[in-house]
Specification:
The protein is an alpha/beta fold. It has a single domain, classed as Metallo-beta-lactamase, Chain A (4-Layer Sandwich). Helices cover 18% and strands 27% of the residues. It is built from seven helices and 14 strands. A seven-stranded mixed sheet has the order 6-5-4-3-2-1-14. The longest helix has 11 residues. It is globular and about 55 Å long. It starts with a strand and ends with a strand. The mean pLDDT is 97.
Length: 255
């Protein structure tokens, strides 16, 4: 199995519009962060978690030619806004709908934001999706088991996902002891860490490191990075062994 970090930035991305800070002005490509998303590839499946505003660009940049399913973590716009572009995969697959896995709250947002997809009289060429309901219970994408992990993004429930011995948790600042059990014995964990100072709805750097030490994955990567975190190279030097800052285009092999 292989995981590609399609986007590692927070809701504004990095650089931030009109910002003159040293991170936003950095020429290091690892300081250029699109909105959070990953691609999971197994022998038989290609799955994207979240289709943010940069989804089209991310698919082109990663040269993704086919896609089997989309999983959504939650209903915020920086995780939903690129769904329309799945129609390219509809066309490529002869009109076959895309399997989209989402909980009830995300489905409500999708039906509100993309009402034309669900309209009775559909306009030609709109995206075709096969909406599948999920909750905080394991589910299958064909024969591939996915285990949701329910976390809190301030007061909003968000789903992380575990596939085999890999887990992805973004937009979180609290995980219950019960849900932490699902994050034990991991080969790799991707976890959000917004910045160094505390935040109302995301783990900061110190909190993320503390949680990683508690969970003890073999390796861990930080994502959903704000320009307030600092430059990639400088922050990387401060991190404990086995923890890295993710960046757009990072590939994690899990064979």
């Amino acid at each position: 199995m292989k995981v590609t970090v399609l986007g590692s930035g927070t809701s504004q991305g990095v650089p931030v519009i009109a910002c003159e800070c040293e991170v936003c002005k950095s020429t290091n490509t690892k300081d250029k962060r699109t909105r959070c998303s990953i691609l999971i590839e197994t022998n038989s499946k290609k799955i994207v978690i979240d289709t943010g505003p940069d989804f089209r660009y991310q698919m082109l940049r990663a040269d993704v030619k086919d896609l089997d399913a989309v999983l959504f973590t939650h209903e915020h716009k920086d995780h939903l806004a690129g769904l329309d572009d799945i129609r390219a995969f509809n066309f490529k697959r002869g009109g076959k709908p895309m399997d989209v896995f989402a909980n009830e709250d995300v489905q409500k947002a999708l039906k509100r934001e993309y009402s034309y997809i669900f309209a009775k009289n559909k306009y030609p060429g709109i995206p075709k999706i096969n909406l599948k309901s999920i909750s905080n219970k394991p589910f299958l994408i064909d024969d591939l088991e996915v285990i949701p992990i329910e976390v809190l993004h301030y007061k909003l429930p968000v789903l992380g996902f575990r596939v085999k011995d890999f887990a992805y948790v973004t937009d979180a600042n609290f995980i219950s002891e019960e849900e932490k059990e699902k994050l034990k014995n991991l080969d790799a964990l991707i976890l959000n860490a917004l910045r160094k100072t505390e935040h109302i709805s995301h783990f900061n750097l110190e909190q993320a490191i503390e949680l990683i030490h508690e969970l003890k994955p073999k390796r861990a990567y930080l994502t959903h990075i704000s320009h307030l975190m600092g430059k990639h190279e400088e922050v990387s030097k401060e991190l404990p062994h086995g923890i890295e800052i993710a960046y757009d285009g990072l590939k994690i092999n899990l064979d």
